Queue: 3 jobs
Job 1
Amino acid sequence: MFRYLVRRFLQMILVFVATTFIVFALMYATGGDPIQALAGERPVSEQQRAQLTKLYGLDQPFLVRYWNYLTGLLRLDFGKALNGRDVSEIIASALPVTAKLALIAIITTIVVGVVAGIIAGVRRGSIFDNSTLVLTLIVIGIPIVTLAPLAQYIFGIKLGWFPATAAGREDDIYALLLPGIILGALSVATAMRLTRASFNENLRSDYVRTARSKGLPGRRVIGVHVLRNSLIPIITFLGIELGALMAGAIVTESVFNVNGIGFNLARALRTEDAPLVVGLVSVLVIIFLVANLIVDLLYAVLDPRIRYE
């Protein structure tokens, strides 16, 4: 196990360096004028440009800037955004908001998607099974850029069940409930179909027939044996989906004006705020890598036959 963890940490470091290098290169080495983007449509004098270029280290070679960024991360220094704020300060205020959205989305996925998938798998061919299959196909076919404003209009504006916007109300869980559910809508549909397929496959396995032939109650066969073996692909999906939810919050947070990671990342991309984009993406990469490591370690808990050499 120890050697496996060391190997995984080394792989995580390589993935992190490669990912941040690509993002850093896309933001800094592919043209564009961040100084003019900071000023907007106003003209920038040569003196102001020289001062800002030196302030943000834009006069240094690309590799030197990237090395300085990596060494700064060791001190938890993500640099300064073009508006003068510390990137770490922006991350500290935005990350908890996006984490709440992702948590609501994951809980919705587990409660609705996984539970409904279990019921559909056990009652294969029933009205509930067929209805969920049709519903998931509809949900999967609607992109989040359409689903989010549609839900905002119906449930926030017309029916008034939820606040139409969460601007300034990021501490209110109720205000984040609708965007969190919408964020997890596609995950619910995918988890439902994945759980159903996994249950169907395991219900036809030899060990299930053996357990039933020994006289074990159906509730124990399904609740212990089938469920435990069916959870491995589901846990894999949820672990990967956690990182995707954190990154995929860009559209949802923009529609509902939620001041989280996605909202700040979208604004940074519009204003070509390279330090903020690189810092936010770095945090998302770390979250994604940690989530995948936790998923890999959970495999041994769910299936004792799995060993890490």
Note: The domain at 88-302 is CATH 1.10.3720.10 (MetI-like fold).
Job 2
Amino acid sequence: MRKWIPLAAICLGAFMLLVDVSIVNVALPKMSVDLHSSFTSLQWVVDIYALTLAALLMALGSLGDRLGHRRLYLGGLVLFAVASLTCALAPDAATLIASRAAQGIGGAAMMTSTTALLNGAYQGRDRGTAFAVWGAVNGAAAAVGPVLGGLLTDQFGWRAIFMVNVPVAVLALAMTLGYLKGGSGVARGRIDLAGALSFTVFAGSLVYGLIESGDKGWGSVQVLGPLALGVLALVVFAVAELRAGHPLLDLALLRNRTFLGLTVGGLLLNAAAFAQLTYVSIWLQQALDLTPLNAGLAVCPLALASFAVSLATGKAVHRLAPQLPIGVGLLLIGGGTLLLGLVSAGSNWTALLPGLLVSGVGVGLATPQLMSTALASVPRERAGMASGAVNTGRQLGYALGIALLGTVFQDRVRQFTGHAAGRPDLHAAFAAGLDRVFLVAGCAGLVAGVLVLALVRRPAPVPGAWAPGQAAAAPADAAPAVAAATAAKA
């Protein structure tokens, strides 16, 4: 059994960083009361983690190729543990947000290293088994996150959701040091610092502007300034990538309509399927008075349905043209999210069930094929870059979704309360805000489905390309996992 200790070390880190994407949602109302924080602060507590993951995945992947992924994983574990401790001890919202950003940096370092470490630690059939276990663990993180967050918050308070990371990280660190071997980096050449910096500025400025628009309004300098900076940074990123000898992203990949469609589809998938759950959790607790645990259980049907569908249909969907399960899955996500609009002022949590189940079926259909098809559409030497781009798109979609939907929610609630006679009803105000959130998110899912059906085709055989089912032979950072894709809301 000693040979599986490296797998346990890697799975512990992966589970921890993915659970922290969703574990916070059900604790937000308690955090708000304890820290006297605003709605915008609540958005940042969730979004800064997803944002740092999105902004740094490609850059840290490139760094791991040079320093060695074991070193990067160890550094990520240490940073994640320290940041989790400071989150648990945070005296105010600003400290908590800063600590969540540090968590995101550590999480990005771990996330970009896990597949490379698995690929180096195991060979042949053992490698296939390791990737299957790793994928299942990551898939479980999606379902466990809200429930674990609710249980810990109910029993020990919201600070426990961060404190629990510390002993888990220490255990993973000890197993990694003792049993997981890793050499020095093999890549040469300079890291694309200009590309990394400009992409980070682009993502950060765009999310900042969207979040602040909820309070400041779209015409505010504090909103227009960051949005303009984001556009400028995106232009700088494109120029930097065209000139770089070793770019983070070869822009020629975007001329491939299949790869482009899948990247955009992944971005919109996370925005449509998962971002609105942050506001659903707040509604469940503040309007319906559910406990954090019950709120976590109420949103679990989506993750459970997606996990069950991905397992049940995994072999069958590979025989179909890839645009069908991915595109139809995205259409189901859009339709399921629109079904969530059944929530009204008099609804209870059961009004969510139809929409969550339909969306979960869509996630289970779309995500297994999304990554494998993206990797099969590019040459083998670009598989790692393609994997990083698609994962970055998905993380960025989650971050942008939370920011944009938060603004939509605030604007709608403000309009409703402004027109309400007398003291507005809390249930009606929440229902009005969520109705608009579900409309925007649902339309994003439908648009994504149409784009995928129009752009994506079964990749023609490319010499040296990665093919579905070749996890054991995939390059270091390119082996996908079905359940990991389902779980990766972040």
Note: The radius of gyration is 21 Å.
Job 3
Amino acid sequence: MREGESIACHDCGRLHGWHALRVHERARCTRCRRELYRWYATGPAVRPSSMVAVTLGAMLVYLIAQCFPIVSLELSGLSTSVTLLESIGVLWREHMQVIAVMVFFFAFVFPALEFGALLYVAGGLWRGRRVRGFDACLRTVQAARHWAMTEVFMLGILITAIKMTSLARVVPHPGLFAFGALTILAALVMRFEPRALWALGDRYLRKDPYRPLARPGGGALVACHACGLVNAMAPGPAHGQRCARCSARLHRRIPNSIVRTWALLAAAALLYIPANILPVMVTETLGSGAEGDTIMSGVALFWNTGSPGLAIIIFVASIAVPVMKLLALALLAATAQWRSTWAPHGRTRLYRVVEFIGRWSMLDIFVVTLTVALVRFQQLATITPGPGALAFGCVVILTMIASAQFDPRLIWDPIEPNGEHHA
């Protein structure tokens, strides 16, 4: 980006002038205090060669993690081991196709899309050219990054391994260490922000800057939700107008944000009841018959068997977090609908918390997936998924979509109309 060029805050819509930062500096919004960008997203700190090296390493480790078994169980001379894809296959055969599809996309497809698209773009920048489909690839990275859950899956592996030690001997395999390394590399890849890459492409690959900002006929300034470029809108409705840089459709606010948020919250609240009442797993052991385990009974099992730390983690991720998300999003939607001016900073921080913790509720689904796949000892012990897992997985998806549909700029609109003001 050029010095002084306008950028917009994602959370409140305020416009700021872009300036290069010194090492370890961060730029924050003057109104809501959201971080706009960091020093490594500007200037020489962004090196395409570094992006290629880190992303290529992540892709190679990802392939190792998918090809090798994660852990194995040994019980009475019997042994079982699984890869991620084998675990998904077990779910599919147990008639839990919806859960199988969720795990397939969150732990397999979306990480692959993020690493693959980012490697393709970074390789082009390294060679000094803008690759074909540059904009579509960066939008893919943005979308896949929101849903990729490598770190949540890694925590699910650790919890499953600790849980299984009371049943059988747990033996780690290369897949376990690969997923651990992948979690670290995925955190490093997160430093390469798509919006910074759009700006990098502009700075090094384009000779002519984009048209200067102006308000033709009184039109508004609107930030692109994808690449962040502030566009000068033509007068009239925004429908059909597209970003001058990435060609994404422009809109001043997410269309029907509050209505969609309420609809998704209502569906999630209805499903939350069977998610906690119905069993998420059914255990069949020799001489004991079938016994169902709900989320709360799993928490109690860890607590009573001397693992209070794991009990607290599962309670927070699977019970406290979903309830908090439902209540927080309901509060945000209601106050935005009433155009309340109450505590805008506090409500914006609440939105950021909801956005950050949403993915961690999938922890219990990953634990169920691995447990069902590992405990397949024929007549001795078998665990199958229960209907509660399906309901809980749907609750997680619906609340994540609801948080994505809520537009936080609606919090600030009653305070400063339209939100887009220069600072």
Note: Residues 207-218 have pLDDT under 50 and may be disordered.
